[in-house]
Write a structure and sequence with these properties.
Blueprint: H1 2-11, H2 18-41, E1 43-45, H3 51-68, E2 73-81, E3 93-99, E4 102-104, E5 110-112, E6 117-121, E7 124-128, E8 132-137, E9 140-145, E10 149-159, E11 168-174, E12 192-205, E13 210-215, H4 222-235
Helix pairs in contact: 1-2, 3-4
């Protein structure tokens, strides 16, 4: 079809309507071939959930929705100690983070009869299914059973240039501080910065998963999410070896 299209376009062969018709036919064939290839590579999972597991998975969705309402959600990429904290508002460590989101989205190349929760963590995305988390990065796919997941929640203080709308401000500092904690008068541009109290969720597994998610609310919903996951893990049947 592509050869015929090229021939019509270069040699002027055929009536005037042939070129648009051939182009439409060629695009249709390409789309059909792409869809067939996608179907061949797509995995189908059909869940028949018992009532308690279905209810537990619904609770997981509800708490994920609660987290999604935070004004900001970040993934912590790296953390390191600072050599001289007086140039960093008195902070003892510097944190690299990126804005992320959590919501309902389907994993690529997977068809299922349940809605899945997607959480972006850098180049990877975590998809929460009723029985496990899928970890997808490009064409690489891994899985973490809820029973093998270690979850911790803690409060953390973070110095911001501008505080998110829903953040709890627990103090103030200056961009440059002196050795007594006050403003360093050597710097003319030395504004006060808010110290915000955030909630952090850490996800770990023995298979190498280690992600830290930070929420701009002091009560961002992480504890509820952890309780929902723990509840699901307790409900899942023991897999036979």
């Amino acid at each position: 079809m592509a050869s015929l299209l090229a021939l019509i376009g270069t040699a002027g062969f055929g009536p005037g309507w042939a070129l648009p018709l051939a182009a439409v036919s060629c695009l249709g064939c390409c789309y059909w071939a792409a869809q067939q290839d996608l179907l061949r590579r797509t995995t189908v999972i059909i869940y028949e959930l018992e009532e308690d597991i279905a209810h537990g998975f619904q609770r997981l969705h509800e708490w994920a929705g609660h987290i999604a309402k935070c004004h900001r959600i970040w993934q912590i990429e790296a953390e390191g100690r600072v050599r001289d904290s007086k140039y960093h508002g008195g902070a003892g460590s510097l944190v690299e983070r990126r804005v992320t989101s959590i919501g309902t989205a389907a994993p690529p190349l997977l068809k299922t009869n349940v809605a899945t929760i997607a959480l972006g963590v850098g180049r990877q995305t975590l998809y929460f299914l009723p029985d496990r988390i899928l970890v997808i990065e490009g064409t690489a796919i891994g899985a973490v059973d809820y029973r093998n997941l270690e979850l911790t929640v803690q409060k953390t203080r973070f110095i911001e240039e501008t505080s998110p709308a829903d953040a709890t401000i627990v103090g103030w500092t200056w961009r440059y501080v002196n050795k007594h904690g006050g403003p360093d008068r050597r710097f003319a541009d030395n504004p006060q910065l808010p110290i915000c109290l955030y909630e952090e969720l850490t996800l770990r597994s023995s298979t190498g998963l280690h992600e830290v998610i930070q929420m701009s609310r002091e009560q961002g919903g992480a504890e509820g999410l952890v309780a929902a996951i723990d509840h699901l893990a307790d409900l899942l049947p023991v897999e036979q070896p």
